[in-house]
Amino acid sequence: MSNCCKTNDSISETNKSENCPNCKVAGKKVKIITLKSMLKPTKLDSLSADLDHYFCAVNDCEVVYFDTEQKSYTKSDIKVPVYQKDTSLEVPVCYCFDWTKEKITQFVEKGLTPNPIEHIRENIKENRCGCEVNNPQSSCCLGNVTKFINQLS
Asked: Both 34 and 73 in a single domain?
């Protein structure tokens, strides 16, 4: 498994975009391994693994993934709640190390330790992250964690 949090391998490949068939906003290209790990088993048989797939981060759009032929997968087709599309406090912001909105909020408001950013960075340094298979957006969560903390501050 590649270490998505340390390098930007194939950045031009992963930054390609297509527009979501539902909300018409450009999605971010994701690796097929992400869909294989995120889709419910009942949806895997409709996956066209040879096509490019994209992640839709628009919070009020039901579509999570779509492909170049406009086949889409919605929130109900995904095994986990999607941070960008779920307002509950239990939703993970960091899927690899279980940093939920609630745990991060407790850190910010009550000064509880460990610091989520430092904790995640320590684990990245030890090559423990698996964002390609754990995070629905198929990329490192540090940007989401930092943004969420800044919104609380």
From this structure: yes
